[in-house]
User: Fold these one by one.
Assistant:
Number 1:
Amino acid sequence: MTAPSADARSVAPPRLDGHPDGEARSASAAVRWGGLVVVTAALLAAWQILPSGVQGDGSSVPKLDAVLKALGPSGEWGEYLRALRTTLGEAFFGLLIGFVAGVVLGVLLGESRILRQGFYPYAVALQALPPIALAPIFVIWFGLGMESKIGLVGAATLFPILVSTMAGVAETDRGRIEMATAFGASRSQIRLKIVFPGLVVPIFSGLEISVVLSFLAAIAGELISANAGVGVILQVYQRDFRLAEEFAVLVILVAVGLALALLVRLARHFVLERMPNE
Amino acid sequence: MTTTEHAVELAGLRHVFAGRGRGRRAVQDTEAVRNVDLTVRPGEFVSIVGPSGCGKSTILKMIAGLLRPTHGTVRVWGEPVTGPRRDIGIALQDATLLPWRDVMANCLFPVELHGKVTDAARERVSGLLERAGLAGFETRRPKELSGGMRQRVAICRALADDPRLLLLDEPFGSLDALTREQMNIDLNRIWRETEKTALLITHGIDEAVLLSTRVVILSERPGTVVEVVTPPFPRERTKELMATPEFAEVCGQVRDRLFAAESKVGG
Amino acid sequence: MSKVTPAPDRVRRREPAAARRPLGTGLAARAAFLLLPPVVVGVVGVLLIQLVISRFEISGVVIPKPTDVFEVMRSEIFMEQIGESTWQTWKATLIGFVLGAGSGVVLGTLMAESRLVRFVLYPYVVAFQSLPKIALAPVCVLWLGFGLTMKFSFAAMLAFFPAVIATLAALSTVPRTRLEMATAFCASPRQRFFRVSLPSAMPGIVSGLEISMAFALIGAIVGEFVAPSAGGLGQLLLTYSEAINVAAEFSVLVVLMVLGVLQNKILFGVVRAGTERFFESSR
């Protein structure tokens, strides 16, 4: 009987294939990277070869090289960046409003049980209303400029922050409050030293959702009615059949979305490091 | 190979967990088990005790066919282990009952996997549940049971498909001392009545001595067999036995060996 | 949670008779205690808004009087329009949800069960997830026109990703010991998936579906916003918006809110409570 050699364990024997440890038909790194490269190459090739170009009928997809050209130095970067600045500005200021309002209302509702009971059903109902449906009303109130989109973003980002703040206040660890009370802390001291520091992490998790929502709501608002921004140029390019530019903007949006996600992730790392939850 | 068939036979067993990653986050290779030789004869109840992290569970997983040894061989009933076997029943520290099944369906789980659910199987499981003091609880869900009852269900499940070998990985580790003692008496009875071969992993010295026909003592990581103690008691074990000086003496003997094993590696 | 469960064989507690109140008054008091604050807030709020608007003669364009909104909702024309529009929106939502969430669960399962599929598709899922998918609405209009197909396709696209992510997450957090137990009892990969992994992941998948359904509704409405003549509640909102009929817009929003509550909170509330009860979410 020969003992299996040390490197034999990297190749799972047939009957062990079910084992969670050496995951099933566990593909080696080479196969996995190979698969990724092949799939990516096939997708890019299909994108270049299959589309028949922009013809003005319903099947229009721009070829890869046209999109790359629209993303290159000869692309409409002035237009892209102006639109992006408008949209990100709307998202930022709207988020600011939603954040402040959400935290203030969340603390109020969290602190008072009776207020919470009174308003909670309405908060739940308003949350079930797709915030984007408010867009036409904000246009009536604030017009076609940035203000209406800022209002929409504020309304959309308010609830996640409100709900998580409220939950954070209401679910403050009783043990900690009892401990502080036992040491003779006053109500305001408890609030300042126990409740509020414990809110950082819940508020941040609400903020994480709201950051994504703010970008989305700004674009949605612009699609419905606006005079500038990403939503506007997307519709203009679509109407004018400038699909290379349309797709270029979508690619830029993926990049911006990834950057936002990365930013949130770094911020979370930073917050959790300074303010560990447990 | 001799004709006498051992229930379990471990020869020169060694297991190394492969390290992962590079640079700062690298996890080094860890040798969990080194040169373990051990045989379990049919009908025996063998316990493996050792300090935590000495690779006890690794040995059990290799016998169960869940892990492949890096070196050496594992044989069960004379055959090299290449994967999980149907004639092995296993119970782990965590009862791992499926919460959406009732007690009966949980016990029948292995039988069902092997495609053998019959009235006879149901009857056998009913008998097992009765012996484990769970008669009348067949239709209860796991969350309605106490921790001790869940562990008893897990042991019934291990025995449900009438395995020849029972593997127990600290099945009572998470229970309080009193419940644990009661469980041990119950397990001893079930073992005698079903005439199985059993291998128990534990860090409880009393538990090992109370249940076993042989106690195997493992050193700190990498685990290796340092001593085998044979408690000189009849197969039937009782609470009264635990109060006797003989019992205390055997326990003391095991404890000394364990401490010796630890300090030897530590120094 | 499970730690609190007493052993049925050892602990048999019964409330002392004196401590038990008559069932009727207990329930009624509890219900009143729960219902009173929201009812008070609702009634006082509506009255206050009505009073402030009439007192300071605020234009109906800014905020319509609650009575005006009630008026609109009672009118026959509105009832006719709203019924048809709600059905059109919800039809698109439902078809989009079934297609999008269904394929999302399938893809999430493939990614969870095969390391190769997961590795190859992960970059694409991440990229698409970080794209605000609303931005695809104009392209969808171009490809699929202004009708129901465009609406439900867009709804499906929004419903797809939450289902993928939730399924992948739920299947990859199945307790390891459960899988090990099944493997030790000689479960085949197929048996392990259908008898252990999938039931264990059910609560997680269902809460993902809940998010999918909410997104499908958003998708249907945005589809109606960007595609003229698509019909539905979104179209109705735009029509009233052009006519600067804010009271009617508020009425549509109320209906939409009720639809949202029925669909996202009540329907899924029941489904989720059911799955969590049956499969015992380990959370």
Number 2:
Amino acid sequence: MQIKPILTALRHHKAGTVLIAVQIALTLAIVCNALFIIHQRVTQLSQPSGLDEAHLIRIQNQWVGKADDKAYGSLMATDLATLRKLPGVADAYATNSVPLSGGGWSMSLRLKADQSAPSAQTAIYFSDDHTLSTLGLKLVAGRNFRADDIRPMSAKEDLLHPAVIIVTRALADKLFPTSRAVGQTVYLANHLSTIIGVVERMQTPWVGMSWGSAASTLVPFRLLTGGTNYVIRTQPGQPDRVRRSAPDALFAQNRMRVIPDQHGVETFRQIRADAYASDRGMAILMGVICVVLLAITAAGIVGLTSFWVGQRRKQIGVRRALGATRGDILSYFLTENLLIGMGGVLLGIALAIGLNLWMVTRFEMQHLSLWYVLAGAVALLLLGQGAVLAPALRASRVSPVEATRSV
Amino acid sequence: MLKMNHLSKVYRTEVVETYALRDFNIDVKEGEFVAVTGPSGSGKTTFLTIAGLLETFSGGEYHLDGIEVSQLNDNARSKIRNEKIGFIFQAFNLIPDLNVYDNIEVPLRYRGMKGAERKQRIMDSLERVGLSSRAKHYPAELSGGQQQRVAIARALAGSPRLLLADEPTGNLDTQMARGVLELIEDIHRDGATIVMVTHDPELAARAQRNVHIIDGQVVDLSEEPRFHAHAGEAAQGQTL
């Protein structure tokens, strides 16, 4: 190998060498972190909600005018009866919020009444005995709510004391990592509730919460307010039909209501798409930035090497005259690029880790996996070799007779 | 050592064919010191580049050290250049980014020589050209004469059987030229075959034999008196 003379020669081309090495370093630092962010976003995007998403429709209903709690209770019961009878509907229930909708309630849970720091934070979903079958939630322990568990709750009241609750497995594992959750009691606000069931998974209304995306609690309440969400599970192949027929049936039943044009009737697919729009946008933006940066770096390498090949035509001719084969010239430029690339990559690894640490402290990002840095380093070295190949091949075709030409 | 029979070199464009060498015949014996003279554009340098396998030829035969070179591939030609031929160029052709030591090392590395042997050869050849103390200097830090001596050291280090010199003193003043020529004669005495292209009659006179090229052909001056008027330098070279 001719590493030593190449390094010696590079000392005479410091500006170009340093420029490309720094470009490689910055690209590595940014691309590693960007890919890491993309990976996190994509992981988030592909998290299962635990729901039978393909068959779910959410209707946001707002009553016109004011009514008392009892009237709201009766209107809601009539609506649910109407929806459940509708052709194509498998089941329906009313709630304050659904997963990924972006709005809902959260509370803290304590294992002991006098505990200062909460044991866990949880999303609160108002539910009834139809909730599990409507959402398609899988009960993995204990039992579902019975009709006699369900109690009305006025919007004016604080959260009533739920005697029984159902929690997700993620929350159960967090609260009781070593024992069965069913039968245990927890403090929700200041009231003791007994866990009667555990569902496999149910995402919270919010994406990217620091306390976890699956710590949810079902409480057996029917919220009596002017506004509520009806969640409908359709039979297979019926979502489009029910999406049109359900609001019509509700209006036919009672016209004194508003179902907003926008987001009033939505399939769960739409809710999911809206919930992750910013994540998807960010992932795409990061992806574009990566591609642009890599392209600029590759173009920089092609440009500089082409310039060097042009500048060193005579020198290449002399080397050929002195016995260098085409392969020797090709390997000279590839090795030269590899050495610059390795310098850039070493600096880039430090920068990538530094940038990540800064983001960890500043934006609560996770620590960058070293595999990303290593894979990025290898990818950039390969990109460099790919970029340098065309000018290096051109160099290898310089005729030895160039040595005799006067410049 | 170097034998060309009816060799031709044609440069073709879409509209015109230009013969740089035509029916070119030359036979340089092992250990000879031949000076090649001729007016500008006569084909001297083309002859030298073909002789040094820097360029291919269009027709005829060329035997170098007994090998017919027209069928050799690029790698084989590179190997012969590296192992059998030493070049001395008018413009020295040192690599400006490398110091004297590294410059001399270039052909030895291409030969795949081990580090210790390379070092020995480099130091020996530097000593022979009187530049041992300048091993770490860069070409730009040396005078023209010193640079040419480094180029000679680079050629010497490879122990070439054939030394091809293209106007080796063309860029040097008289005193430096003399030193360089003495070195070339020294190398000749050690057994190398030397072919030197030159304009300089004094230089040509130091060779054992002069070959004159006009219009891409070797001219026997004794049989072509009409060229004497144009090729006075060469004629002078022959009579000396």
Number 3:
Amino acid sequence: MKKKRYLRWDKQSATTVLYPVIFGILLLILWQTQLLHKLLGADTFALPLPGRILRIIFDNGPTIIENIKATVMVAVGGLFFGSILGYLLGIIATVFPKWGAGGLSIASAISAVPIIAIAPILNNLTKDFSDVANVRSMFAKTIVVTITCTAAMSINAYRGLNELKPYSLDLMKSYAASKLTVFLKLRIPNSVPYIFVALRVSVPASIISALVSEYFAEFIIGVGRQIRENIVLAQYATAWAYIVVACAIGIIMYGILLAAEGALLKGRK
Amino acid sequence: MVNVVNFEEEFKERDASLPRETEIIIENLSVNFPDKDGGEPIVALSNVNLEIKQGEFISLLGPSGCGKTTLLRTIADLQEKSSGTISVRGLSPREIRLQKKYGIVFQSPVLYEWRSVRRNVCMPMELLGMPKKDRTKRVTKMLELVGLMEFGEKYPHELSGGMQQRVNIARALAIRPEILLMDEPFSALDEFTKEKLHEDLLRIWQRTNKTILFVTHNIQEAVFLSDRVVVLSPHPGRVSAIVDIDLPRPRPIQMKETQEFNALVSKVRNSFEGV
Amino acid sequence: MIQIKKILSSKYMVTLVWVLGLILIWELGATVIEGTKRSPENVLPHLHQILASVFTTNKVNGTQTAFQIVLSNGGITLLRAGIGFVIGAGLGFLLALIMNLFLPIEKILFPYLMMIQMIPILGMAPIVLAITKDINKSRIIIAAILTFYPVATNTLAGFKSVEKEKHELMYSLAASKFEIYRKLLIPSSLPYFFTGLKISAPMAITAAILVDTLQGGAGLGTVLSQSLKHATTIYIFWQIVFLSAIIGILSFYLMVLLEQAISPYKRKKKK
């Protein structure tokens, strides 16, 4: 019985899928036939044709994968450490509500600080970390991403740990539950959806800060840096190839997040 | 256009000796909802017949799923009918909606949180294109009517639930409608606030002489307020009885303790079918 | 005694203590680095050194002090960021409006709007510069794009979040489409619109500074790059770090103030 509804292919859901696909194909055709260039006033040099961009991606496979690895490692590493750190800060703020909440308002202020201000500082700070330029650059970049992700997670974790359903805390009290039990049985499960709210912000943000911190890094590697280097060398087609790759990373990571959210939050709401 | 500032005409005592005209006629009304899975349509209302006179206070009473709200929404043209006729002073629901002849009060106050109380009450008159001077005059009168004179400049979130519902009533009456449609307006309020609003609603009704259709699932509330209680039963939604409430008016709160009142409550309760 | 306790436990006091704590950590770090590095001002100077560099009268490039350079270039960057922000906000609101008015357009554009959120737009800054070939235009365009989609998605969410009863009330009053937008949908979407603005205001500034670093000319980012390459005093870099942090935070609170000015009921909500 339930399956029937899924399979029913009515006009509404058909257009929901078809319209954007048609639009996308139309855009690609405009681009390939250079009509888009006339609209934007660009030439095929700065805005190469999609076919050429794809060819470059296939031709430079190994190099591109090398750069993707560097960027993804920074983004995922920073995301991981930042989220854990942020969650811990959320827990600390919950345990010490008065001082913690004030600290979180500082954290939210820090999240408005441009990444560009943070990235060069950390580059300088981590100069002594390792003798290998690549390793210390990685370290600096990961810290930048960590900082960006910490703010989003700490604020949302604090909300998740404290915005409990009415009476649920009273219920716990009526069981004479310890603070620890309240955390394990109530606060932490309650915060799971909020973790995903934070991740929806910090997954794209982690990639952006990874790309931008690559601009300032000592060692030349990473998708973001390649975009910039290739433009400096006027190799626009290669730069575009890296942009396409950067977009793909963004979409795939967000897709993974949505899939994880769907699996973990099943049955909630 | 209705003259909304002629308060003498609007608030004059009704001569009780005059016969009341029939205002709303509902004949063989049926409303079906299409089934989401493409199965048989769900019958929300089946073959409803009802006549309502001008100035009557009618309650539509029943458990959930009996179609009482659907009936109100169909009269308000918020819901399509499947068959049958509804005529309000010879007009269809669509026509009376377009002529802005009825005011509606929902269960939740749906006030515009960015507007002050005064400007909330003012809103429907803005849609009617009333001159500003008339609007201001009428808003003041309406706030006086619902007893919120001092709260005009407050914002909805600063008011209690009962006060919000008063603003809601004032807003519904702002366009000087012929009919007031109320969909479980007090069911979210506490008992004390509710009793106060019952008294106030009856006072407003007697002063303005409107026809009121009042949807509720509370038997006592229906009996206390109404001239007639229309009892609806579910599966399918239908009218199972119409009970005349011949209690004298005005009705003080103490009336709820009288034997006559309780006898009518029992009579209404016994007229449900298949619950 | 109670008075003192009250002041000590107030919200501002908590924030103040935190700020003091952060300053302390910074100063401790600076002291450690002072003892271990050859040129500590490149890594972490003392705060008073940065402050001193703001008020010094020493000319850095013959005509301007370090702070004058930062301010004049800051003005250029902020102006471009501001123009881009206003254009982006306007376009974002308009797009949300059009999407809400025409269902096919919503269906076409919604997936793409969602996709933009996942794409690192800032990474595309160099290519925008390559296409427009003009640093000022690219600043404005990147700031506009970054402003545009949070505003569009949030405003659209605002339109969609209006309760069914409010729509029915307008319907019962036979309100026209124009009236429904003017009296109901636009006012109730305003808080969402401002959520979009609060997200994008700091982003627009980040974007404008980043675009500066891509090319010479003028702007905060340009002098920041020069300073990092030691073409001029390193304190310009530190001043920019603090200035951009302050502007980023202020831009957020500017949006909060603007919202309270436009929607007075919000002001009363927060006690």
